[in-house]
Amino acid sequence: MNHSKTQLGVGLTEILVALFILAISVLGFIALQYRAIEAMSEGENRIQAINIARDLAEKIRVNRTALTQYASTISGTVTALPSPNCYESLCSSAQKAVFDASMIKISAQRVGMSINMLACPEVENHRQCVYVAWNDTAATVGDGDGDCTSPSGTYRSTSTCVVMEVY
């Protein structure tokens, strides 16, 4: 009995099944690579936000008497460096605070981040919190999905921001 006629097309079917399995595995690998790139980007943004917030916190610790100037400058609109340039001339503590806060705010804006400084929610010691946000998150406290934290200070799991207490 000749089985070659019953085997016609079986090799082609096996090849098609193998190609289908290969295509599914390649798609899975592409999805895995995409998630890895997203996670890496998120990590880079968090590191950059932490560095911005830490830079502001260190400047505030050095010049604690000008906390009001730091808060008002960070919370306001900054488009250019103020005068005098504290790198080139001596500045008072208030001028230094405005200059430092302006530098930090401009640095955050250049990398697509927003920064804000508000009273920490539900804290008795009147400490300030620095909010650094990116993507669709606002550096604010509120009830909306785009806010960094809720009014009670609870971090929103869907937000892309960093909160640092400054003292």
What amount of the residues lies in strands?
5-15%
Biggest sheet character: 3 strands, antiparallel
Oligomer: single chain
Low-confidence stretches: none
Shape category: elongated
Rounded to an integer, what's the Rg over CA atoms? 27 Å
Distance from N terminus to C terminus (CA atoms, Å) equals 91 Å
Keywords: Membrane, Transmembrane, Transmembrane helix
Protein name: Type IV pilin Tt1218-like domain-containing protein
Transmembrane segments: 12-32
Domain Type IV pilin Tt1218-like: 31-101
What would you say this structure looks like, in words?
By secondary structure, this protein is α+β, with helices and mostly antiparallel strands. It has one domain. It has helices at residues 10-62, 67-75, 93-110; strands at residues 114-119, 128-133, 138-141, 147-149, 161-166. The strands form two sheets. A three-stranded antiparallel beta sheet has the order 1-2-5. α1 (10-62) runs antiparallel to α3 and α2 (67-75) packs parallel to α3 (93-110). The radius of gyration is 27 Å and the shape is elongated. The chain starts with 9 loop residues before the first helix and ends with a strand. The relative contact order is 0.12. The model has no long low-confidence stretch (mean pLDDT 89).
